Automatic annotation (TrEMBL):
InterPro entries: DinB-like, DinB/YfiT-like. This is DinB family protein. It comes from Pontibacter ruber. Residues 22-171 form the DinB-like domain. Pfam families: DinB_2.
């Protein structure tokens, strides 16, 4: 299985997690915060939505501009790509500050946040499919918070999926805390 196929499979699983674990929850549970400075389930999803609003169109543009049939399916990593991926890997338990405009803390959110996430996820799954004809090693995706830096298409796709995986694990932990509080 290629890296793109693995990413596409993971993105599909993340779609299912949101659909099965969160979509049917009561709005008060979706907005429950374990602590004032931590995020609710919806805040985790809104954070990902904010990234998707930027990265999905940036990836679509990069893939379209670099899909000449001369595909490069294996991903090689730049120092920026390695650093970015290491930072968002779900196994990396170190907390990182997010840039202010990507921080959804204390936002007023509702079910539209879930619908938007699912819509973005469908777009991402399609982008991963269309990336099969792209040169994944082309530096073509500007980094959101510092657009002068560019990530390779493959790195950026992997970054988006790992970042989602990290924050959906966080949202699942919040759901677990909600259940523990309800049981207490």
């Amino acid at each position: 299985m290629t890296t793109l196929e693995q990413l596409q499979q993971t993105a599909g699983k993340l779609y299912q997690i949101v659909n099965t674990e969160f979509a049917s929850l009561d709005l008060s549970l979706l907005n429950f915060k374990p602590a004032p400075d931590s995020w609710s389930i919806l805040e985790c999803l809104e954070h990902l939505n904010r990234y998707s609003r930027y990265y999905n169109p940036a990836l679509a543009k990069a893939i379209a501009a670099n899909s000449d049939g001369n595909d490069m399916q294996s991903i090689t990593y730049s120092w920026l790509g390695k650093k970015s991926l290491d930072m968002v890997r779900p196994q990396n338990t170190k907390k990182h500050k997010t840039v202010k405009h990507m921080n959804p803390n204390n936002s007023t959110l509702d079910r539209k946040t879930i619908q938007e996430f699912l819509q973005h996820q469908t777009e991402l799954i399609n982008l991963l499919g269309s990336a099969k004809s792209a040169n994944l090693n082309k530096k073509a995706v500007p980094v959101e918070f510092f657009k002068l830096l560019k990530m390779r298409i493959g790195e950026a796709l992997e970054f988006v999926v790992l970042h989602q995986e990290r924050h959906l694990q966080q949202a699942l932990r919040v759901k677990q805390q909600v259940a523990q509080q309800a049981a207490a």
